[in-house]
Design goal:
globular, 27% helix, Ubiquitin-like (UB roll), 3 helices
Length: 90
């Protein structure tokens, strides 16, 4: 199963403090749906519901590569998935 690295600001609220979790899925969309089923609240942090795509302030990295494929990006059972929220401040 793909391993998802959970951004630090989301850990306490969504995964009980876990920095990484494993969920099933063969695409980024399926991984997000599996996360939502197990840890409610993930989807709204990642998906722009009106556009049905990854929010503009979130980058998705699969196996160290940020791709423009968005939700269609394929993942394997050995993949590492990172959701990277935009940093604020200066």
């Amino acid at each position: 199963m793909p391993t998802v690295w959970v951004p630090a600001p989301w850990r306490d609220k969504l995964t009980g403090g876990a920095a990484q979790v494993e969920v099933s899925g063969e695409t980024v969309r399926q991984v997000i749906e599996a996360l939502e089923a197990e840890y409610p609240g993930f989807r709204q942090r990642i998906i722009d519901a009106e556009q049905d795509r990854v929010r503009a302030d979130i980058a998705v990295s699969v196996d160290g590569e940020i791709s423009a494929e968005g939700l269609r990006r394929k993942v394997s059972a050995a993949s590492e998935v990172h959701f990277l929220p935009a940093m604020s401040g200066g």
